[in-house]
Amino acid sequence: MHYGWWILALVLIGAELLAPGYFLIWIGFAAAALGIVTFLVPGISLLVQAVLFAVLALASCFVYWRFVRRVIDERSDRPLLNRRAEQFVGKRYKLETPIVGGRGKVRIGDSPWLAEGPDLPVGAEVEVVAVDGTTLKVRAAA
Fold first, then answer.
1. Does the CA dihedral 92-98-102-108 come out positive or negative?
2. Mean per-residue pLDDT for 75-100?
3. What does the pLDDT look like over 19-36, one tens digit per residue?
4. Which residues pair with 114 in a beta bridge?
5. Angle, alpha carbons 124-128-133 (nearest 5°)
6. What's the Cα-to-Cα distance from 58 to each of 11, 32, 93, 120, 127, rounded to whole Å?
7. Where would I find the H helices in 19-122?
């Protein structure tokens, strides 16, 4: 039966390669570990294998969430890569459209961004103080 666990491990690890998220690979590692166990101890019943797989899968996912994920997140040389708007906090830009009724637009690079803050005229310099989704929270630059 150890071949079945090896096949499951390959399928899960392959699925992780197609849709990366650092989750399926850990369950794949659990299946591979069970493949080793069933190779070394061939008489294990299917029920024991299923329980052992569940325990190994939960343990490997716990190890990932508790330890490995922190290391991966800390090692990023560009932690704001997928949170583009957060890199604008603390920077100053000029208003492209006036802020009227609390809403206006700021041009950053070649993209207009929705800005919320106090009413200000076109061309006023604003500082980004926070981000809410794709909306920049701004105040008049001092």
1. negative
2. 81
3. 877 788 989 999 999 999
4. 105, 135
5. 125
6. 18, 14, 48, 54, 46
7. 24-40, 46-63, 69-74
CA–CA dist 34, 53 (Å, integer): 6
Name 113's bridge partners: 106
Domain 84-140 top-level CATH class: mainly beta
Give the helix/strand (H/E) hosting 4: helix 2-18
Radius of gyration of the chain (CA): 26
Q: Where are the domains of the chain?
A: 2-74, 84-140
**3-state SS class at 119:** coil
Distance (Å, rounded) from C-alpha 8 to C-alpha 19?
16
105-139 exposure pattern, b = at least 16 Cβ within 10 A, e = fewer: bbebeeeebebebeebeeebebbbeebeeeebebe
Tokens of 58: 């939960």
